[in-house]
Amino acid sequence: MIHKMSHFLVQFGQLYNFFGLLFFNLVPVYNNVRSGAYNSHNLGNVSLKQSGYYALPFDCSTDYKGYFVLFCLDWYLSFTSTSSLIYIDILLAFTVLHIRGHYKILIQVIENFENHLGCNTNKNELCYTAETNHSVYLQLKRIIKHHQLIIKFTNMTSETFGDILFITYGFHLSTLCLLLLQCSQMNTEAILTYVPVTIYILQQLILLSISFESTRSMAERLSTAVYCIPWERMNTRNRRTVLILLRQSQQPLNIKALGMVDVGVTTMAAIIKTTFSYFIMLRTMATEN
What we know:
Blueprint: H1 2-35, H2 64-111, H3 130-183, H4 188-227, H5 236-249, E1 256-257, E2 261-262, H6 265-288
Antiparallel strand pairs: 1-2
Helix pairs in contact: 1-2, 1-4, 2-3, 2-4, 3-4, 3-5, 3-6, 4-5
Subcellular location: Cell membrane
GO molecular function: odorant binding; olfactory receptor activity
Protein name: Olfactory receptor
């Protein structure tokens, strides 16, 4: 399941990245064709349009050589920038989905606790035998070590990607606001150029937030699964071990942006709400001016 979800993320991200680049960079080409800018007779009267403009020491709007240089530069910069963004998000989603997969494996082992003991157990017995209690102790030890490994990896993920998550959420907040402002022009050029990019940025935010939220919900199921362990049939040592596992399983999944902001659907909703608020404010200011 995790493999299929990871494969889907890569394919979907690459596909949307490809179409986003096409729309963003080919719309200016279409406008140049429609305005006749590629006709050398009209070049003095019509400026060549680009997907991005930069302060360069040569003419890019009325000279074909300068236009071609900037055209290639726009394709290169748009490809590298979008690819870096999408692959960072895919890496984050991969990491979180694999944490979710480990939680799912751990829950499955706990829910089928007696089937993984490696010895025959009689469900009619009130207490385990000494041999079974030894197998139970070894099984509990493996479960606790596996859970400690998940917690350690989760903390490492939060420390490693905390700054990146904070920058990513800040990028989504500011970029979505500006893209919505561009889309609000409601002309053909703005819609074809900026709507695909807006959807692209928004789906990145949604996919990343849902990945974190689904992993958090899976982690919350662990404590419920631990309650289902037949602790009443164990000896005192194993009951104490189950208590340690129960306390450990109640620790919340701790992945935060910059160690402060929880990552999930709640943060995503707050970002979208704030984005629309700033968009309305900027739109009002632009209309008044």
